[in-house]
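Regression test case RT-17, inverse folding.

Input:
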């Protein structure tokens, strides 16, 4: 008989066993790596938002300039 795919109870990986240092809160290099990766991600998101805002402002200015030119003629 085939296994039922509807019951997902127990599906997933096992939890990582913590070292004594991790249990006591000393942490490891992994925590620092995650922090550095998160910082890089936040910086990238900030740069992308700035570019998108600059592009939107440029698009708005150019469309406003196109609309103003025929009115002056």
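Golden output:
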């Amino acid at each position: 008989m085939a296994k039922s795919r509807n019951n997902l109870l127990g599906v997933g990986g096992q939890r990582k066993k913590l070292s004594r240092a991790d249990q006591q809160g000393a942490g490891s290099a992994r925590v620092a790596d995650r922090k550095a990766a998160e910082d890089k991600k936040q910086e990238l998101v900030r740069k992308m938002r700035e570019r998108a805002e600059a592009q939107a402002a440029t698009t708005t200015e150019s469309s406003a300039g196109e609309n103003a030119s025929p009115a002056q003629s």
